[in-house]
UniProtKB/TrEMBL annotation:
Location of this chain's protein in the cell: Nucleus
Keywords: Nucleus, Repeat, WD repeat
Main subcellular localisation: nucleus
GO cellular component, one term: nucleolus
Protein name from the UniProt record: Uncharacterized protein
WD repeat windows: 145-179
InterPro entries, A to Z: WD40/YVTN_repeat-like_dom_sf, WD40_repeat_dom_sf, WD40_rpt
Length: 227
């Protein structure tokens, strides 16, 4: 099971999405009740979620309301990723606007949304994929096969959106340039065990392991150390 909040501000600030089985429930936090369901016909449980507002160019946007839609992405154990566009007043059953292909070779284990219409996905197959999301379709732009030697369990983007940080079951953190997915560096023993989650806030990287211990890195030092 996974859960994400809709947005830190705006019309989606009171929304929360919770994955249960092969679908996702949308909750209104003000009213404390479920107001809708996202169903993408996944053939296995939804393992990870990502949600955020994305800026679309005039060429990418097909409707003047696109800018108000929240992008919600589901990653499943069935290897597939589905993308939903959720309007602020949406209720009831919503179906995906995009199904990303080709799929990964194993279950989806991490997702990271970039505000400029990009998505990064990671899998137990050790690969990281970069996708370009348009309202009607998704396009795989790059794939980094064997980005890690073990399951990739967490990913996060730096505040300026220029660097992707990934962490795996073996405890290694790696840095990638968003533009071309070029490898920038790594810390091989960031944790003794699996890195289950990564979050970046301003100049700090927070990582979580099974021992419920949080490590803190100052990004400027971390980047110098990796290089």
């Amino acid at each position: 099971m996974d859960l994400v909040l809709g947005s830190s501000h705006g019309a989606h600030a009171d929304s929360m999405f919770i994955a249960t089985a092969n679908s996702v429930r949308r909750w209104d936090l003000r009213r404390g009740c479920s107001v809708g369901k996202l169903h993408g016909n996944h053939q296995a449980p939804v393992m990870v979620l990502a949600a955020g507002l994305q800026q679309l160019t005039d060429e990418e946007s097909t409707d003047h309301d696109d800018a108000n839609c929240l992008t919600v992405v589901t990653g499943s154990k069935d290897h597939y990723i589905k993308v939903f566009r959720v309007p602020p007043d949406a209720s009831g059953l919503l179906t995906p606007s995009i199904e990303l292909e080709p799929p990964h070779y194993d279950g989806i284990s991490a997702l990271a949304l970039h505000p400029q219409g990009l998505l990064f996905s990671a899998s137990r197959d050790g690969a990281i994929k970069k996708w370009r999301l348009c309202p009607a379709q998704g396009r795989q732009e790059l794939i980094t096969s064997q980005a890690h030697k073990d399951w990739i369990l967490g990913m996060s983007l730096t505040t300026d959106g220029s660097i992707l940080v990934s962490g795996c079951r073996g405890g290694t953190l790696k840095l990638w340039r968003v533009e071309d997915c070029a490898f920038l560096g790594e810390v091989q023993t960031a944790h003794d065990g699996a890195i289950n989650a990564i979050r970046i806030q301003k100049d700090r990287i927070f990582t979580a392991s099974r021992q419920v211990v949080y490590y803190l890195y100052i990004c400027s030092f971390f980047f110098r150390y990796c290089k």
